[in-house]
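@channel sequence for tomorrow's demo:
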Amino acid sequence: METLDVIIWKIRQRKGRAKPYEVRWKVSTEPKSKSFLTSALADQFRAGLLKAAQKGELFDTVTGLPSSMRQAPTEKKPVLTWYEFSRKYVAMRWKDAAAKTRESIVDSLTVAAFALLDGEAADLPRKDIRAAMLWALIPRPDDTAIPAHLENAVRLLQKGTIPVGELATPAVIRLIGQELSQTRDGKRAAPDTIARRRRGLNTALEYAVEIGELSENPLKRLKRKKTSRDTAIDRRRVVNPSQARELLTGLSYVGSWHRARGRRLVAFFATLYYAGMRPAEVVGLRQTDCLLPEQGWGLLTLEVTRPSSGKQWTDTGTVHDERGLKQREEQEVRPVPIPPELVAILRTHLEEFGTAADGRLFRNERGGVLGASTYARAWEESRRFALTPQQVTSPLAGRPYDLRHAALSTWLNAGVDPATVAERAGNSVEVLLKRYAKCLDGQAEQINQRIEAVLKG
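structure tokens (generated this afternoon):
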């Protein structure tokens, strides 16, 4: 349908948008709008509308355009919007990505989308955008119905993100950089969060180059604000052997003796400390991974890790993913010798509690995979039993993971070769020394003595 009933308004500027200059007009009762990167482009488009209206041209109520501004259809490459590209990229990566990686990818693409909205989608609340992107990006059968509470947001996002090709524009990529560096409440995000999001987006944009949507990765042109990233372990968190034993004893008092809520976790935390393992590695530890002789040192041969993720990120629909070891090839193992003290604790655990149906040493009270919230609550109670009131409010062993930090620090302070420590811990030597440098006792005194000797001549 065509009409002469046209109203054309002034250009509206909307800061913080990928295309901040918006031309608005109405054809009969149908409101129309089109956004532009610069005011000059918006002026040019609006001038075309005004000229056509002054000449008495008929405007189409569907496209909103006069005949002089409507182009004959030509064969050209379909425009790929950020929304559709994100779905395509996630579907390509999903099968071979770990659950945590899937979560990180979706987060990076969603945060970038905040800078790439157009039209009505730009007016959606951010929580609705995040929820809609989360639902849309997780691969599902094509006939899956959109949840009613997300239907409007998904519909607007389907037509309301700019083409991927426009990310090559400097102003657009700068807006994306700003979004990557912000938390949900608008504050500056932690350096690790910014780096993680940037890594995820960088890989996605490399894929956009690969499929011909971009000629180069625009993120490489975006300069990063240099921030100090202190990844070293806070030595205040590190317990000594005596404190570690007190904490393990404290676990025995957590919960009733009959339910053994704390006692069944003593061996779990002991493995974190004496073997220096990650919690996800201990969660996946099986009886077949353990060599526990009656006397002397034992050996744990690690092959499986059970990191905790949301149910939507795993293939099984359970909270825990099942993967190979971190930073290692699939099916690669890591042998970890364990001292007699831990061997005895694990043998006692097996005698009293046995294993889960699939051979795992540690499980919850219903036999399922041991959850992070379960062992974290028990650990906090143990700290209150074992530590002084001042220590309870301090960072000392504040998290279960701190037992791993304590183990690696203890090995290094005992004079164990860093290469051996790194091999047992599943780290590189470079990362190991960088993270645990502040936990090495005695180094400052030795250095001071050397300097003093030089000064005395």
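heads up for whoever presents: The CA atoms of residues 118 and 160 lie 5 Å apart.
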